[in-house]
Every structure is written in C-alpha cells, then in structure tokens.
Design goal:
Two copies of one chain form a homodimer.
Chain A (H helix, E strand, L loop, with lengths): L25 H15 L12 H8 L3 H13 L3 E4 L3 E4 L6 E4 L6 H7 L4 E12 L2 H7 L6 E11 L2 E11 L5 H7 L4 H7 L5 E12 L2 H7 L6 E11 L4 E9 L4 E8 L4
Parallel strand pairs in A: 3-10
Antiparallel strand pairs in A: 1-2, 4-5, 5-6, 6-9, 7-8, 8-9
Chain A binds a DNA duplex through helix 3.
Chain lengths: 263, 263
DNA sequence: AAGTGGTCTAGACCACCTG
DNA sequence: AGGTGGTCTAGACCACTTT
C-alpha cells in the first residue's frame, strides 16, 4: 500500500511540496509574501486595507488557518491591525526600532524584521579570565576562561548603545563564536540548538550616563539611558552569557507586553 | 430546514454548550482548567510532565488545535516548556518575587506579595473630557468622558513614583471605580471579569526628571527614572486604560524574563 | 442581508526523541 | 518502531460591521 491511499490529496493548488523547507512554518512564508507583495511594495499604503482573508487564501493557495497565522504575525510586529467585520488595515511605520523586551531576540533580528540594519563599531574581542562580578554573574569559578565582546551599536550611522558580552569558553569555543559572529552574540548562541538557550533574566534600570559612556555614545554626560543587565540561560538554568547594554532611547523603542497571570 | 442539518454534530463530548460565554476562547478555558487541575493542584510538580496532547483532548473533549492553544498560552506565561517528541514540562516558578515587568500586576499586589505596603499621597481624582494625546492613546473620540486618577506612590513613606491613569467612562462608570479604588486602578479593572482585561502594551523609556516631577518625588532635577507608558487592553484589543508612571529605581527593582520565541 | 473576521473541529502527514 | 509534538487543510458556525 502506498501512502497516497491513506487520505485525500493535500494542498492541490501548489506544485508538489517536494522541495519545501519543512522547518519553516508556512504561515511565516505567507507573512513574508504578504509583506513583500502588499506592504513594502507600496501596493497598499498605510491606512488602506489588505485583501480579505478569503482572497489571500486563494492567492497563495493555503488554508485560512495559515493566512490567519500570517496576519497574526503581522499584527504582533505592528505592521497591521485586524478588526472583525472590517478587515486588515496597514499601519504607518514608526521611525524607530521597536524592540519587544520580553522576547529573547537580538537587536539585529528586530531591526531586520522591520527592514532596517544595525551595525557595530569599535569592536573589541578578547579572551579573558573572569573574576569578581563577572564570575559571579556567570556563575563560574574565578579564573575561568571566557570570551569578552564589546562594541558600539550604530543605527543609521548614529551610536545608539554600548554592549558588553561575556561567554564562558566551556559554553562555546571562543573561536567558534568569533567565526560565527555577525553583530550579535545572542544570535550565535541561539543558532547552536544543542545549547538549549531558553530565556534570560533581565534587570531594567534607568541611568544617567557617566562621562566615559557619554563620550562613547556621543552625547552629553547625564543623558538618560536604559541599562539592561542580563543573564542568558539554558532550559536547565545554566548561565551561558552575561550581557550588559547601555542604550539610548532616541532611536530605539523598548516595549513589552505585560500579560495577566493565571497561576 | 434547521441548522442542525447543515453539518456533522459538533463537540459531542461536553454537555450542550448552552451557557458558555461565546466571547471567551475555548483555549483560554482549557488553559485555566489545566492550570487548576495539574499545576496549582500540585498533581504535576516542577520538572514533571503534563499528560500528552491527545490525553488532554480526550479529558476536556476538545480538538487538538484547542489544546495546543492552551499549551501555547501556558508556555507564553512561562508555566511550562513544550518540546517536540518529549512533551510538556512544568517549570519551576521564580524564587524572587519578580517585580516582573512582564506580568500585568499592580504595584500594590507586588508589594503585598513581598510583605510590604505601598501608599498613595496627593491623590487627585477627577472626571475630564479627554482630547489630544489622551484621546489618541485611549482610542476614543476627542471629548469622550473619562476618569483621571493621579497620585504619588509611597514605599515605606518614601516617594517612589508618580502615576497617572485614564479610564473612559464607557468602560467602567467613574463612580464604580472611585468606590472600589484602593490604590490601584488596574486592580479595579482586573476585578471586573466582564471587562476581559488580558494584557497591556507598555513602552519603557529612561528619562531625566524635569523640575516639576523632581519636586514631586523629592529628588534633584535630572535624576534618572523609568517612564512606563502603558495601554491596558481587553482580549479583543479594546483599550480600557492609559497609564503613565514615572518611577525611581532607588527603591524598586524592575526585572523581566525574556523568553525565546518558537512561533 | 451580505461580507468580514473569530473560533473550533476532525483528520492527515511530518519531524523529533526515545527505546 | 512507536509515541510525541509540529504543521496544515477543509469546512462549519458565530459575531461584528456595514449596506
């Protein structure tokens, strides 16, 4: 017996799904297609409506559930608003990079999601023996080898933050990180599925920048900034990264969704 | 012809869904049931696994899609982690009574959880016609009636923040809010289950306090503070509250858990 | 009344993990 | 190999908004 006897034919519209990457949800591909076909193309301006869900189903040959997953994703990233009985309206885009603080996700990824780029400057990568505060925050013995990565983040050529990352050498080989680094230490860690990186605990502190940091970022001393002090952990609770970031709110927007707790 | 002829019988397992509130997703009810039946009951301890999705489908008489919606919600709030091929594991709850910015929870509730008290001072309650920025943030027509509540928050007698809340009169009668208010507008809204308050979207901005605000809080002008600008919403996305808070980090610690996104 | 999004179901097949 | 979660489909009915 062949598998083709076991049910009705699936997905009649697209060609045989042979080459589809199974690891990427179809909804994400549809989301990207809608973004390209209607939003970034300018076919639908801010304030105007996307085609109806039924139309999108026909156009892309997918089920309504899949189209709705795509639309939900677009709504979560703030590109559209969906109203019952009305349809999906494209929203005007913010000039700033919106960062969902509650998501363990690099600035690079956020920026790319909205079609912008961030760069690094004054990049300084070194291997060090951690002790004191760093050893405590990494939960390792003083003297443990670690990779230290420091840099300025640039947005449209403007300095927007200073970031310092430590990763113990026994978490991931420094050479590996350096080889795979393209702006974000977190992205390297997330890409290594075997590490099981799951969450970070992050302190959020408003600070007035001291003279040295202000010079780095090209602002006056005393400028208000957001200091994020973060321990990235595996599912088992092992610390794999201590990250400190001083960020200017000027070109960055930090937001988060606070959810009602039921437990 | 009756509607019952138009398709196969739906939901055979549960009793007639007569009294179900149609506005609450079934997935949310299943999520609450799972929480009560397995997690808060202690039937499944941290580190142990929930029943399989198929078992949960049978137990609650719902489809797998619905069970998965419930599990996704539990994962988003950090109660469980779901792994392909492994199942759903209950997570240990954070020891530190998180002043968790990611939880929709009043300062009063947080303080009570750690055995402290917060008080209000300079309380100012008024009915106003909102316009401009306030109307925009509340998503109402300019001129709409709303309740405005302003006050200083005190922690151990020390001023720690200035909070401003708007609630449109057609969300909840101003008299009702005033009657039930005991320090937190959010707590009043959460207590009204019929409002279906579910989440808030919160902007997090570091600011240097201006002279007026600094005087209110008894600090020097230019002191760094955290400005939280928040729209509290129902499950349907209706804004029920616009809240602004200027908070001193001195006596408060803001932290949050950033979670990896799998969707 | 018509059209749109909102929710839910039953079933199918795929990918991952563990024996 | 068997069981688990991951994804997707087609179809049905409900609720909201506009005509």
């Amino acid at each position: 017996m062949t598998t083709s006897e076991r049910g009705p034919p699936r997905r009649p519209v697209p060609p045989p799904p042979a080459r589809r990457r199974t690891r990427r949800p179809l909804g994400d591909e549809i989301r990207d297609a809608i973004t390209a076909d209607f939003i970034t193309s300018g076919a639908v301006q801010a304030g105007e409506r996307l085609p109806t869900e039924a139309d999108l189903c026909d156009r892309y040959g997918v089920s309504r559930v899949t189209v709705r997953a795509a639309l939900r994703s677009l709504q979560e990233t703030g590109l559209i608003v969906v109203r019952q009985g009305l349809g999906s309206t494209v929203l005007p885009q913010s000039e700033t990079i919106t960062s969902g603080l509650d998501r363990l996700c690099s600035f690079e990824t956020f920026a790319r999601a909205v079609g912008r780029e961030v760069d690094s400057a004054e990049l300084d990568i070194a291997e060090v023996d951690v002790d004191g505060e760093a050893a405590r925050r990494l939960a390792v013995e003083p003297g443990t080898r670690a990779l230290l990565v420091q840099r300025v983040k640039l947005y449209d050529g403007q300095p927007v933050g200073w970031i310092v990352d430590y990763v113990p050498a026994d978490v991931l080989a420094p050479a590996t990180i350096v080889r795979e680094f393209s702006g974000s230490v977190l992205d390297v860690l997330l890409a290594h599925a075997e590490l099981d990186v799951e969450y970070s605990d992050c302190d959020v502190v408003p600070v007035a920048l001291d003279r040295r940091m202000a010079v780095r970022l090209g602002v006056r001393a005393g400028t208000a900034a957001l200091y994020l002090d973060e321990q990235t952990c595996t599912r088992q609770g092992r610390v794999v990264n201590w990250s400190q970031a001083w960020l200017l709110p000027e070109h960055l927007r930090f937001c988060l969704r606070r959810r009602r707790q039921y437990a």
